[in-house]
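Case study B.
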Amino acid sequence: MSVYAWIGLGNMGGPMSANLVAAGHEVRGVDLNEQARAAAAGAGVHLADSVAQALAGADAVITMLPKGQHVRAVYEGPEGIWAHATESMMLLDCSTVDIETSRYIHEQSAARGLKFVDAPVSGGISGAAAGSLAIMLGGAPELMERAGELVAPMSARAIVAGGPSMGIAAKICNNMMLFIDLMASAEGSQLAEKLGLDPQVFWEIVSVSSGRSWAQQTWYPVPGIVDTAAANNNFEATFRVDLARKDVGLALDAGTMSGICLPAAQLVSKHFDELISEGLEDKDCSLIVKNLVPGGQV
Ligand code: NAD
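Model:
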């Protein structure tokens, strides 16, 4: 049994930490949100009132927070992780953050003699609940075996992406491809329908043809075709527009930093921005299909 300190018990952190409890580990959770705390307590997480309390004697510290700024805030300062971590603990950040934040946390942790691994995840809320996430590990080679053991109860596969920040680099590139694929499915679905194809027949053709993708299989933005699609449920979010926009923005920032042109990602971000300007940031990202149709009807 290991002792985990867990910071960020939201949509992802809640079920992920619950899987650690179910696997027989002790989890001490911290969150600012009362609802998130109560749900975690219900799943067997021991609530802590401070980072210091959660970290005392822990084997691992996991952060699962919205953005880079939240991760920095939780690491820095007299109440933060760096002030209370010890050399025996492994620090893992599972959040999707910008490359610069990830590099900063790696550098600052190493300068303090602390073991840090970036460990972003893919698989969404359903993968978090099922314990079937893909987890991408970035850090010093000698830390990878232990990091893999620590995340195993939450994942179907933990893959070593490479050295420091290579996990987050893989995650950012993967999600950029996902949202470009989603845009392709949105455009294909609408054009096919206007050309007179039956939506179900077209989806089945694509499923065995070269237009197939994870987005087309899982998030197809036409009601009544794919069970897991938010289109069946008035585009209630399984992956929110604003979080999708954040992820594409991380890719665009990384592209600027690296001198790479990303025209398709730019186009996708523009469509997410349109939805956000219409007040639809809480809806599902597959609503990207909306403004392809004159009048915005889907
Ligand atoms: P969320 O907003 O549901 O949860 C984040 C939690 O962090 C909230 O409960 C919030 O109260 C807490 N928090 C914020 N600041 C804090 C602080 N200073 N101290 C303690 N708690 C604090 O977000 P989520 O959907 O769980 O996503 C978390 C991360 O995982 C994000 O980076 C997201 O991009 C990534 N991610 C999400 C999904 C998904 O499908 N939702 C999939 C893969 C990766």
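Residues 7-13, 30-33, 36, 64-66, 70, 73-74, 95-96, 121, 124-125, 239, 243 surround nicotinamide-adenine-dinucleotide (CB under 6 Å). The remaining cases will be described in the next quarterly update.
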